[in-house]
UniProtKB/TrEMBL annotation:
Residue ranges annotated for the HTH tetR-type domain, each copy included: 27-85
Keyword entries, A-Z: DNA-binding, Transcription, Transcription regulation
Protein name: TetR/AcrR family transcriptional regulator
DNA-binding region: 48-67
Coiled-coil ranges per UniProt: none
A molecular-function term among this protein's GO annotations: DNA-binding transcription factor activity
Keyword DNA-binding applies: yes
Region: Disordered, residue numbers: 1-24
Length: 200
C-alpha cells in the first residue's frame, strides 16, 4: 500500500511540475509578445506577426497559439493598455493628493493615446469600433474615481463630469507624434487647470 502511495505521490508531483512549468512559460511568452507588438505597431508600415515573433525570439507557431490573427494580437495590445491605464487611477490616489494624481494619470493618458492611435489605424473599422465601445466605460470609471476624490477634498470643481474629461482627452489620439509631444503636455495641463477649484 505504501509503495502505491509513494508511486502515486511521485506521479502527482511530476504532473504538477509538468503542468505548472509550461503555464508559466506560456505566460512569459504572452507578455513578451504583447510588449514587442506594442513597440512594433508604432513603426511605419504594416505590423507583421513574423516580425513580432522575431523580436521576441520565439517561433511563429508559439505566437499563433496565443494570437491566431494579427487583429487578435492588436486588440489585446489595446485592451492591456486600457487595463493598465484604468488600474493606475486608484494606485495614484494612494500616494498623491487627487489633483496631483489626476495630473500624473494624464501623463499615462498621453502614452495610451499613442497606442490607441496606432492600433486603431492598423485594425479593421469594426474591430476598433468594438474596442472603443468596450473601453469607454472602464476609462470613464477611472476618471470618475479621480474626480470624486478631488471633489471630496475640494480641489476639483463639483460640476466636473467624467464625460467632460473623456471628450477633452480623446483628441490626443488624433495627433501625430510631433504634435503630441509638442502640445500634449500643455493641453493636459490646461485641462487640469480647468478642473482645479481656484482658491482665493
Amino acid at each position: 500500500m505504501s509503495g502505491y502511495g509513494g508511486d502515486d505521490s511521485g506521479h502527482v508531483s511530476a504532473s504538477v511540475k509538468g503542468v505548472g512549468a509550461p503555464r508559466a512559460d506560456a505566460r512569459r511568452n504572452r507578455e513578451r509578445i504583447l510588449r514587442a507588438a506594442r513597440e512594433l505597431v508604432h513603426e511605419p508600415g504594416e505590423l507583421r506577426l513574423n516580425a513580432v515573433a522575431k523580436a521576441c525570439g520565439i517561433g511563429q507557431g508559439t505566437l499563433y497559439r496565443h494570437f491566431p490573427t494579427r487583429e487578435d494580437l492588436l486588440a489585446e495590445v489595446y485592451r492591456r493598455e486600457v487595463d493598465d491605464l484604468v488600474a493606475a487611477a486608484p494606485d495614484l490616489l494612494v500616494a498623491r493628493p487627487p489633483l496631483e494624481a489626476l495630473a500624473a494619470w494624464f501623463d499615462r493618458v498621453a502614452a495610451y493615446a499613442r497606442v490607441k492611435r496606432d492600433v486603431f489605424a492598423a485594425v479593421e473599422a469594426a474591430t476598433w469600433r468594438d474596442l472603443a465601445a468596450h473601453s469607454l466605460g472602464p476609462i470613464g470609471e477611472a476618471v470618475e474615481v479621480l474626480l470624486a476624490a478631488g471633489r471630496s477634498d475640494g480641489s476639483i470643481r463639483v460640476d466636473a463630469e467624467a464625460r467632460d474629461v473623456i471628450v477633452l482627452i480623446s483628441w490626443l489620439s488624433r495627433l501625430d507624434d510631433t504634435e503630441l509631444d509638442a502640445r500634449g503636455p500643455r493641453l493636459l495641463s490646461i485641462i487640469v487647470d480647468g478642473l482645479h477649484v481656484n482658491r482665493p
